[in-house]
Amino acid sequence: MILDTDIGWQPGGLLVLAAAARVVPNLVVVTADETRGRRAQLARHALNLLDCTDVAVIPGFDLGGEERFLLDTDHPPPEHGEDFLERIRGLDRMIAAVVELCETTTGPIQWVGLGPMSNLTAVISRLPEIADRVRVTQLGGVHHRYRGRTAVSENFRIDPTSAGLALRALHTSRLVLHDHTDHDALQITPNSPLLQMFENPTAPRWANLLAMHMRAWLAREPRTWLRAPLTLSAALGLPFVAFRTERIAIHPDTRLSSALHGRSMQASSTVDYDEFLSWMHGTLRP
Prior knowledge:
The chain has about 290 residues and is α/β, with parallel strands linked by helices. Helix content is about 40%, strand content about 20%. A nine-stranded mixed β-sheet has the order 3-2-1-4-5-8-13-11-12, with helices on both faces. Strands 6-7 form a two-stranded antiparallel ribbon. A two-stranded antiparallel sheet has the order 9-10.
């Protein structure tokens, strides 16, 4: 399983990494929306605290999203254009690492997309036949309408070209829609039991790291949602998220809408929130 995560922004990135480290064999982490290696450094640190030193961490495509990293303020933003060549080299290294992984692995590859789809698109562009082997479960997409218009998912909006290419290139993809992830049952607030569990004085260091990240986010926003862990549960084949096959049109700005002649995709239809929360609390219990 390749976990493609923009860890270090919303708390779900660290939460899903901790859950995956505990339940997923043959896990590989690729950082989405990388910013000068900081996401990869955070992922490596968290995995070490979880005693998962054997899990590989591959720095992904650097999109220059300096403001989309929460904890680290020690590194000033680079001068304009300073890191352009290094970003290109980093992209080449990421593609080579994932391609090598895919070429040396037999059987299907689960790709869990929790951020922009830049990494997946880059890999498919270099080795198109990988599109036949990866089974993609992607967090993103919105069906509900706001002021008469369907909203654009943040994961797609950050890099709409990559999202559009990947969704069109994949033979089968499953979308965990924000229609179902932005639900009251999945909210984390300052009084949530999950946060209190991580802040217990006897909790291990990895739980303290999660609590620190959650508190840092909640100091700037009143809530967050357990979007990423729900997407992981779907990729694992757990029964909490139900899917249905739909014909979906992909608009130039990556808005999605039902269309008779759209691409056939699987989109989330219902969620058993109570059962999911029970599983997640059990999985992340220190």
